[in-house]
Amino acid sequence: MTTHDRDPEPDRTSLPGHRSAGAPPTSAWQRVVCVVLGMGAGHVAALRSRLAACLALRRCDGSLREARRWARTHRVPWDPLEAGLRTLGARCDCEALEVVERE
Predict the structure, then answer these.
(1) 0.85 exceeded by the pTM?
(2) Taking Cα atoms as reference points, which of 100, 44, 98 lies closest to residue 70?
(3) Interval 31-50: pLDDT, tens
(4) For the stretch 21-34, what's the b/e string if a residue is b when 16 or more beta carbons lie within 10 angstroms of its beta carbon?
(5) How many Å apart are CA 20 and CA 86, to the nearest integer?
(6) Which of 9, 39, 40, 65 is deepest in the core (most CB within 10 A)?
(7) Contact 29, 103 (CB under 8 A)
């Protein structure tokens, strides 16, 4: 059998667990955010969405109230999340939104 008779190497980007060629790349900052917050990209995106929606309706009150509510609803432990947000420089919901939106 010659090498011409063999199947070509499969396209591994189409396998589960691999990012597809058309997917936008995750920025280095977003990877840092995931590690520091101890959450996957999906949870970070959900937190970003929640904070953006809440802050569009009312201004920030200087606390992490909405982030805490989000954590409770998604069963994310609050103490490590709060510590991670503060490590990244977020002392309130609007600063937390800036941190998770940053590219």
Answers:
(1) no
(2) 44
(3) 999 999 999 999 999 999 99
(4) eeeeeeeeebeebb
(5) 33
(6) 39
(7) yes
